[in-house]
Target: Mannosyltransferase
Amino acid sequence: MKVALVHDWLVTQRGGEHVLEALCELFPRADIHTLVHRPGAVHPRIESHPIHTSVLQRVPRIHELYRHFLPVLPQVIESMRLTDYDLVISSSHCVAKGIRKPPGARHLSYVHAPMRYMWDLFDDYFGPGRASAPVRVAAHAVRPWLQKWDRESTAGVDRLLVNSQHIAGKVRRFWGREARVVYPPVALERFCQNPLTGLGQGGYYLWLGAFAPYKRLDIALEAFRQLGAPLWVVGTGQEAARHTSGPPPANIRFLGSVADEALTGLYRDARALVFTAEEDFGIVPLEAQACGRPVIAYGRGGALETVNPRTGVFFDAQTPEALADAVRRFEDWEPGFQPSDARSQAERFSRAAFQRAVMAEVDALLSKA
Model:
């Protein structure tokens, strides 16, 4: 059986790329098709596969500018031709699911989210203060067309998988289709191998993620400015200049990008992880819990499926005041927390469980061919 793996772009190693890496392990002889590839940017297991790119790969500085090409990405993905494949598996949060499958092939799509910046998170990306006036005007102009394409492009998908019940609801609401939930793989091994002793010694709260608009780092920064409690921030991204211009308050530290091998220590020494995004699934809270640490999370989206009342505290509005109140409630809640409860919760989302579920879905799809 000849398999094609399709992914939106390969320019950094984040949650979607961890899913692709696990798929590469399942299908070691598969070809990869993607819009843009920055060599060396993703896991060696992905890089070891033949990688085919689109015409965008020839655009100068495309690895930095690819987001600006959003209005033409549907046409670009449809122009990529797949031939002689029996099975197409797309890993999609933008346009990958819109690839045209070869005659006789079957298409299984693992959807991280409908095109979030054109649906419910539109204002987070293109609202006042989030983008320049010309970009906002252009986004409003193309939004109806991109929503229509996002919905209609699912017609070429034979079986839809999603990463959470939260996204299954969005698929039902935006696309009018049903999808099966397969939780994504979380690389728990390196986080679970350490003993659940000597935790929280750093005394700081930890925020970790990409500096993207919907991650809402701004909430954490303002809440901890008010609280005066120590907050360590790990990450970088498109909003780095906005968040790091000028000296931060004395209680807030920006650590920038951190090597994977250092993350375990940061998690273990943190008092708690602060999670401010309405995430489609959210791997970071599971990594923290695998290390035996609790989570203070915004109570919507995937966090409701990965954090429970024994392993964290929720806040119900994306405001600094709501988060600050949750931190105060956490201080009363914390004495009853058991690190073993957090690790047990994380272990439900293993890589092996993901791979077994995907293979069961592939078998079910091919049995109908």
Remarks:
- The longest strand covers residues 87-92.
- The chain has a mean pLDDT of 93.
- Residues 289 and 345 are 7 Å apart (CA to CA).
